[in-house]
């Protein structure tokens, strides 16, 4: 699949085969692989003692570990990384998986949000782990903005776009807001928002507030600035990540340690912190990227692996990403082509709408 790492190249044929079969066995069953099992599957006939010596050497290199007092071995995080980089054989996308993804994408008659929600459900269903979909920013021009006070600490901003798309976003307004200051802020924004997208409105707001400081009272200015922060950062990130299939992860945890790691993952998903990193992870390289264990910056505490790929619009600009997250013993050879194909199809669907 990829370049062979120097450590893999330094191994002799027997060590490579023992290492590969241990990792493949672990990925398939989740259980340690012992020397007696390997004597029945290796291409050359060697004794269990010889295999144990090879396993000890691989453990010394940091590629294998011995869980508890088991005589079997499992790959370490370094071992999984070496396997993925040097020995992983990526299969072709099966006709069944391709059909399920294509059927879920549908005809493209509904909006992008609904289509991407279905993509997330399809990915989690096909892979039997949790899926993550980072949706693109809505870049249509803004037609109208309205603020609605819900309580002293909660307010709603209603965004109506020129293409008919409507978004409702909750936020915390600055202290002391009144209905009149909210109306004044909305009037101010509507006067400058026509033809602007969310990406461009923030800069326009900043310039207009400086130019027209005397025309808008302090409370309304604070509200406008609060709204600008919401659109560009927190609110948008909280709404742009679609997570589906969390129950798949919970069902995989057979031991107390697994459950604790999964709960940690759930906490990360619920907080949705550092969502911008999700897209950054995908943007750092072409095609599908695999992050194992602590390499997974977004969910580093969960002991999980993330397989992620960006998707592009008609201008070949990266605007979002799709991926799956699950235990480190994912079936990488099957999941990589699924994520890759899904990202390509999502990009095609979005490009066809523009």
UniProtKB/TrEMBL annotation:
InterPro entries: GAF-like_dom_sf (IPR029016), HrcA (IPR002571), HrcA_C (IPR021153), WH-like_DNA-bd_sf (IPR036388), WH_DNA-bd_sf (IPR036390), WHTH_transcript_rep_HrcA_IDD (IPR023120). GO terms for biological process: negative regulation of DNA-templated transcription. Coiled coil: none annotated. Residues 115-336 form the Heat-inducible transcription repressor HrcA C-terminal domain. Pfam families: HrcA. The keyword Transcription applies. Keywords: Repressor, Stress response, Transcription, Transcription regulation. One of its GO terms (molecular function) is DNA binding. PANTHER family: HEAT-INDUCIBLE TRANSCRIPTION REPRESSOR HRCA (PTHR34824:SF1). Belongs to the HrcA family. This is Heat-inducible transcription repressor HrcA. It comes from Loktanella salsilacus.
């Amino acid at each position: 699949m990829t370049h062979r790492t120097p450590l893999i190249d330094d191994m002799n044929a027997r060590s490579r085969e023992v290492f590969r079969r241990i990792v493949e066995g672990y990925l398939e069953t989740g259980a340690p692989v012992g020397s007696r099992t390997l004597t029945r599957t290796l291409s050359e006939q060697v004794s269990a003692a010889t295999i144990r010596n090879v396993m000890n050497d691989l453990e010394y290199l940091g590629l294998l570990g011995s869980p508890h007092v088991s005589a079997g071995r499992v790959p370490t995080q370094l071992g999984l990384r070496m396997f993925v980089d040097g020995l992983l054989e990526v299969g072709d996308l099966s006709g069944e998986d391709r059909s399920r993804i294509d059927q879920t994408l549908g005809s493209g008659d509904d909006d992008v949000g609904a289509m991407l929600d279905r993509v997330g459900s399809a990915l989690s269903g096909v892979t039997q782990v949790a899926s993550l979909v980072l949706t693109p920013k809505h870049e249509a021009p803004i037609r109208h903005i309205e603020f609605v006070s819900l309580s002293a600490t909660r307010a709603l901003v209603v965004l109506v776009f020129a293409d008919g798309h409507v978004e409702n976003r909750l936020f915390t307004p600055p202290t002391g807001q009144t209905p009149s200051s909210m109306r004044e802020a909305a009037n101010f924004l509507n006067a400058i928002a026509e033809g602007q997208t969310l990406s461009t409105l923030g800069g326009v707001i900043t310039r207009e507030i400086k130019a027209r400081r005397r025309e808008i009272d302090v409370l309304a200015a604070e509200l406008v600035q609060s709204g600008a922060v919401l659109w560009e950062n927190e609110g948008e990130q909280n709404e742009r990540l679609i997570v589906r299939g969390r129950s798949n992860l919970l069902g995989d945890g057979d031991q107390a340690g697994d459950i604790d790691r999964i709960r940690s993952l759930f906490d990360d998903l619920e907080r949705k912190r550092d969502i911008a990193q999700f897209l950054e992870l995908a943007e750092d390289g072409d095609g599908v990227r695999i992050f194992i264990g602590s390499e997974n910056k977004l969910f580093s505490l969960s002991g999980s692996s993330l397989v992620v790929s960006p998707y592009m619009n008609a201008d070949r600009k990266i605007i979002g990403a799709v991926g799956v997250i699950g235990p480190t013993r994912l079936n990488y050879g099957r999941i990589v082509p699924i994520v890759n194909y899904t990202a390509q199809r999502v990009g095609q669907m979005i490009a066809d709408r523009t």
